[in-house]
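Q: Could you fold this chain for me?
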Amino acid sequence: METRPSDYQMPIFIIGMILFTAVACFGWIKLQYGFNFIDEGYHATESWRLAAGDHFLQDKITGALAHYTLITRIIFKIYPDISLLQLRQIQFILTLASLLIFSVALFRQSRQYAWLPFVFSLFAFTGLDPVGMISNLYYQTYPHLFLVLYLSFMLFGFQSENTAIKKISYVLSGLCLWLMSLSLLHLGLIILSPIIILVLSRKFKSKDYPFTSKDLLYVLFPFAVCWILFLAVFNKSYLLNIFDSLDVVLSMPSVSGGLININWEFIKQITISMVFLSLFFVAIKKLPVQFFTAGCALLSLIIFLIINTSLFVFLVPYYKGGFGKPMWFSSLLMSFTILFWMHTIRKYILKKIFSKEEELSIILMVPFTICSLTMGVFSGLGAVSVAQSAIPSVVAISYMLTSQLKNMRYQHPVAILILTLLLGPFYYTTARHDWNFTFFDVQPRLTNVKIETGFGRGIYTNQVYSKLYDWLIANAKAFTQLDDYAISYVVSPMVHMITRLRPSLDDTFITFEKPRSYYEKCIKKMEQRGREPKIAFIFELKLKLFPVSLEQGTVSISSKEFDFMSSPDPISNYVKTHMTPASTFKISKDHIIRCYVDNNLPKRSENSPKNP
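A: Sure. Below is the predicted structure, expressed as structure tokens.
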């Protein structure tokens, strides 16, 4: 009796789910490793300060370009004592939930499900941030979450025969688009996605994915209404904040030189990935099964060696090697995007009929392309941020591949094998990087202390970070009270979460790349609103352990960015004028963290923290 392809789905799916579950368990364990004083502290502080009493606009000169703080504020409001680890766990749970919803939506379209656990396995480990930067909820992970949910509800709407459910699905998809733009303002361009899908649906005369002008209105309605209500609430002050934010951002040297910068090393990586993808799909299409399987295996091995050796040391690793492996994953996504749209345009010009899988891939790739290009241009990470909206793209890759194989006997086993050969090298190297790179802490195997109290409780880190953590808390207890304000710089916003002291200044991510006039304005506003600091922590460097070698686990500390005692910057001038030295924390001879307290505070008692 002949075996039908569909008979293979369930056993393959069970194997995939075992893999997916195992990977998810390791991903959950990974969340407890690595403490971060800079970016992750910034994202937490900016949301927590709103829940603790600060106003979104009145207490900040800037901040209107990224509203993700308003979303995370709700979490801090519901659970004021939430820890960093619990925030990471919420992000991880939301990742799995969104993948489940997306899987159901995809299954309803094609009735294919065997390959889903394999394709989604990477994200079961990395969460919404395959770059391995921050396993938390912030302006890079929120868009990824809402992008997946938007597509899920759109797919539910396409296939629903119940008019009410169809309308609700489209309204929810529009709400997700608004939440994307709320988390990061320039992602408002994502509203073009349903409009483009409508145009393409008409051009391609799609019968499997009907989408009408009336359907489009249901998607656009919540996006428009929510923004109208938002502007009605915050009004003129919000618009002024946008202009102030843009003025500060555009004055920074890293941005004033232009948003679009050509990274030739990444161009080389895209070219290599395009050659790999092209040969892979050509082998599938042109060779008999016994030959294309061997050919794909050989190509997979070659690209794995290229990724691990940076083309045998001929390519410069991206961002000093810190994001080298995720950049290859980004290059795969970008090369597929280019080849996909070339294929789609060519097929349209030649008036060829699109398969159901190709039409679905177009629906997935439209918002991915908009989102990835927008984030790639505006993100400080550059092109590597493409990976932070990867989920729709890898699904489209899978559909295009299975579409090539759909007329072959034993479709599912072959499809899983070829998918593994195609994605495996990129998935493995990206996941391994994510495990080894704790974003400026030591690797998990080198962490030797667990933080037991406060916001960082449950996190494993190194001895220096742990002792500094305790020193910061001790000084805050000795010299401050609840609802006091603090200053912490340079780029050490996590201090506010550790000490539970709201920032005196507009910005918690203090960097001297911003103009002097901006910080003068911040100090003036601080004094006008009675937010003078009772304590200040002066870091003369960004406290981060940058990986020298991810393979060996070696790290180096960043160099000093300024000398506090001689610096004429407005913040240092204020601290030296209005505050007095209280304590120091010595990392090394050249790296000393200073604690200053308000001149009007009583002299330190015998119980005050001593220098470590």
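A (continued): Strands lie at 449-450, 460-461, 485-489, 502-503, 535-538, 545-549, 554-557, 579-586, 592-598.
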